[in-house]
Structure of Small-conductance mechanosensitive channel:
Amino acid sequence: MAEALTAAIVLAIFLALSWIVRRFITDIAPRLVSKTRSSIDDELLKAIRTPVQVLIIVAGVYFACNTLNGLSPGIVGAIDKLAAIALILVGAYLVSNIISAFIRWYVADVAPKTGSDLDDHLLPFLQKVVVVLVYVIAGIMVLDLFIEVTPLIASLGVVGIAVAFAAKAMLMNIFGAMAILTDRPFKIGDRLYLDGIGATDVEDVGLWSTRVRTMDGRIVVVPNEKMASSHIVNISQPEVKLRVQLKVRISYASDAEKACAILESIASGTPGVSADPKPRAYLSELGDFAVTIMLLAYVDNYDNDLSVSDSIYRNALATFKKEGIVIPYPTVNVRPRVR
């Protein structure tokens, strides 16, 4: 009875200690570091808050169990192994959180000052890789508590070849992600034209795949291997300007020069159309029943291509009607054959 009471007291002390530490990290420490210019201390406090509390609770449970005498050697050994497993996992949790905190701090405070956006996109990818590596090492350490892992690791050299063939697609996706982040054919937020999908906006570049959003709001997941090897049109680079091509057909009886001048004037006065280069209208085709005029204009931002085209077409329709320029439709003249 006395041993159980002692164990309860020990556990209560550690629970109280974990509560005190959490309150210190959550309420007191942020005020102490609030005057610093860097955000690294805030990120570190967030990173260690939960792991430290869990670590204290695990230590309390372990020491409380050790105060109980008369336990069989099997139970004592099981408690030691469980404590070791918990320590390894909590340690991996703590290390991954600290690494993530440093990377978040670098992306937020340092990367904007470097003048390059490579680290902005490469570091989050490396964060995912390092976190996975930390937990893989933790898993090996846990496995070492039960079996000898040295021969197992040595045998992985042979097994690795078979695994590499089996995981070929996964490895190609990882290498594809590295190629995307280092070569930078596109970045998050860019608008791409993908074969079979159409115009999309890049949402995220992950370890295995790239997520893009179509113009109708759907999320499409594309394997990185395909993204790295396919032909991609990046509409956002080297600038956000986009050339729109509009076609209008007028009758042969209408004044083509006047129609071209009207289209150029309408485009130049449309909000969102770039003044440099100026909109230009050309005769592009002499068809069976109509003359085709092609208007080329640059919009200031590719997001406005549809609204600008709509405005030009509406104004052209109204102005052509007012100026007597006819937009024809296909007609067929049928003449009866007289015998």
About this structure: The two ends are 126 Å apart (CA to CA). The chain has a mean pLDDT of 82. Strands lie at 191-194, 198-205, 209-214, 219-223, 232-234, 242-250, 280-286, 291-299.
